[in-house]
Amino acid sequence: MDKINIDLQHCYGINALQHTFDFSKRRQNIVYAPNGVMKTSLALTFKDISEGKPSSDRVHKDRQTKRVVVDGNGADLAADSVFVVEPYNEAYRSNRMSTLLANGALRERYDVVRREIDEKKHLLLSALKAPSGLKDGVEEALATDVTSDPKDFFTAIRRLKPEAEKAEYAHLANLNYAMIFSPKVAEQLKSDSFKADIYRYMEVYDQLVSKSTFFRKGAFNHNNASDVAKSLKAFSKPITLSM
Fold first, then answer.
1. Which helix (H) or strand (E) holds 158?
2. DSSP letter assigned to residue 85
3. pTM of the complete model beyond 0.85
4. What is the pLDDT of residues 112-156, one digit of tens each?
């Protein structure tokens, strides 16, 4: 098999993708793309092929999915010709794993790395319970809210990491996750009165910023002003010198 032609629409978030993977000169093809673009979705699509299952759009279930994956002769790709290695899944098993890890040293190293990841994951989930306000289901909640898949915890963590490292989001660290991401809050966000209040808030905020000498959108806002006020208050305390 020298070529694989794919024509995908609405497969796990892939709106449309047409491509020909050419194996005539090299037996490998590398897909390089930023996080959250299409790599995992493509892997899930091929995983469905290997398991003989239909594919779908994860979020928009009503959209019509198209999945055409054929070889250079136009024949459908056989399920037994596809082997997908998941990035990390503690429950992952495959009847072809013995082929992948036939080397004893590699298999032992693989088991050690898996145990290390399991231990760090357990420590992270334990540390997140108290600040998140979630007694149980921290892993499933984060995975679902970030990726729409309760089993995709590690993808969720990879997506959250660069956001969590941004200094401008530091003031959000003390917010209670369970209070924000709850059915009651979701219902409130849908209400007409809440939408009207938000619209009014933004309207007044824009008016104040446009007339302000110091405030400017994207540079110096009410959060910055609050921090400056706290700093000035701290420096304004009288200093006592003893001789």
1. helix 153-164
2. -
3. no
4. 888 898 899 999 998 888 888 888 888 988 888 888 888 888 888
**Is 4 within 8 Å of 69 (Cβ atoms)?**
yes
C-alpha–C-alpha distance, residues 137 and 123, integer Å: 14
- 208: Cβ contacts below 8 Å, ≥ 6 apart: 215
φ and ψ at 241, to 5 degrees? -110, 130
Inter-CA distances, 151 with 20, 61, 243, Å = 30, 18, 66
User: Do 63 and 57 form a contact (C-beta atoms < 8 A)?
Assistant: yes
Query: pLDDT (tens digit, 9 = 90+) per residue, 68-107?
Result: 999 888 899 888 888 887 765 555 555 555 555 556 677 7
Kindly provide the residue ranges of all beta strands, DSSP E only, lying in the chain, ordered along the sequence.
3-9, 17-22, 66-71
DSSP letters, 12-36, are: TTB--EEEEEE-SS-S-------TT
From residue 69, how far is each of 24, 77, 90, 127 by CA, in Å? 17, 6, 29, 43
Q: How many angstroms separate the CA atoms of 172 and 39, rounded? A: 30
Q: What is the pLDDT of residue 243?
A: 45
d(CA 118, CA 17): 35
**What's the pLDDT tens digit per position in 155-174?**
888 888 888 888 877 877 78
